[in-house]
Design goal:
Length: about 350
């Protein structure tokens, strides 16, 4: 690993990415001139953490077929590996004895059906996530380098069910452990959840609103989920859902191209600070990823995914008994992601 000091500045990439997303949006609007009939897809929900769930298409409004639309059932097995390139701590960092960091993230989700009916579905499973942070020490010569491993383990329940007056509901409840596993305590056990209602306004337009409680914003907190999903043409999907908006273009039945922006954060219970002091600490990790993602159906059941783009607004924070003991912002960097899903 190269330990030489550098300052990474991927801003030209950020500008190009923004231009690409504007171009995609412009093409989508051009593809649906004023007065064209509208229709709606089934909606893929923003997740509380990595898991995702889509409600059933139970509303009475007819649905225009959308090319390459994923099944509303979650994949039986999903795997992702994400790499965030080395980035420098900003000069105003406090309490972190490092000046650079890079991250590896591995996520595995196993889902299995508990009950499936024509109108509703109940799934459970396992969600496993491992984040490895490689910190490079500060000083000349550098005095300290360290690797920190953080783990998340959850057992979610995902329910998709029709609601009165044409609404569809999606619900997630997930007890989970967030810890470095060095000294596992009761504080590491938390519950995340989501309740979302979706209404098919027209054959092309779906409206959704709900609330989630989780850690994807970098700390445990409730946050709203709201927005719309619009299908101007079978090849296009415009997803304006907070907190995971995106634009999807499907040139073929097997291939989907997506412009995405998504929060990327978590919070873990850790047993010592970054100077070796033991205690009851919480490490917070937050930021956003934006970029392009490709999905390709290798077979009827096997889906391959890859993505790359910009990581921005990334920061770290260490707290003890509710008090901040260290915090740091890092420079923008890039990420790469590969994954497989079996359904």
């Amino acid at each position: 690993m190269d330990h030489q000091r550098f300052k990474y500045q991927p801003r030209p990439f950020a500008g190009g990415l923004a231009a690409a997303m504007i171009l995609l949006a412009g093409l989508a609007v051009h593809a649906n001139p004023g007065g064209a009939p509208q229709s709606v897809p089934s909606l893929t929900q923003p997740a509380v953490g990595p898991p995702r769930l889509a409600p059933t298409d139970s509303n009475a409004v007819p649905v225009r077929a959308v090319r390459g639309t994923p099944s509303s059932r979650p994949p039986l097995v999903s795997y992702y590996y994400t790499f965030e390139e080395q980035s420098s701590f900003k000069p105003d960092s406090h309490g972190f004895p490092y000046d650079q960091v890079l991250m590896h993230e591995t996520f595995v989700q196993i889902a299995f059906p508990l009950c499936i009916r024509p109108a509703w579905r109940l799934f459970s499973g396992l969600d496993l996530q491992w984040n490895q942070f490689d910190f490079q020490g500060a000083g000349e010569p550098r005095m300290r380098s360290e690797t920190k491993n953080m783990f998340s383990f959850g057992i979610p329940l995902r329910l998709s069910v029709p609601l009165p007056k044409g609404w569809t509901g999606a619900f997630i409840a997930a007890p989970a452990i967030y810890s470095d596993m060095d000294a596992l305590e009761s504080d590491a056990l938390r519950f995340t959840g989501m309740a979302l209602g979706s209404y098919r306004w027209s054959p092309q337009l779906n409206l959704s609103a709900g609330v989630a409680y989780g850690r994807i914003m970098g700390r445990e907190m409730p946050f709203p989920i709201a927005g719309l999903t619009w299908d101007p043409l079978p090849e296009w999907r415009i997803n304006l859902m907070f907190p995971n908006p995106g634009i999807i273009y499907s040139p073929t039945q097997r291939l989907r191209c997506m412009a995405i922006i998504t929060p990327s954060g978590n919070e873990w219970d850790v047993s010592e600070d970054f100077n070796g002091k033991s205690g009851d600490f919480d490490l917070r990790f937050r930021g956003f990823r934006t970029g392009l993602r490709l999905e390709y159906e290798i077979t009827k059941h096997l889906l391959a995914r890859c993505a790359s783009g910009l990581v921005f607004h990334r920061s770290y924070e260490l707290r003890e008994d509710g008090n901040k003991v260290a915090d740091a912002d890092v420079e923008e960097t890039w990420f790469a992601q590969v994954g497989l899903a079996w359904r």
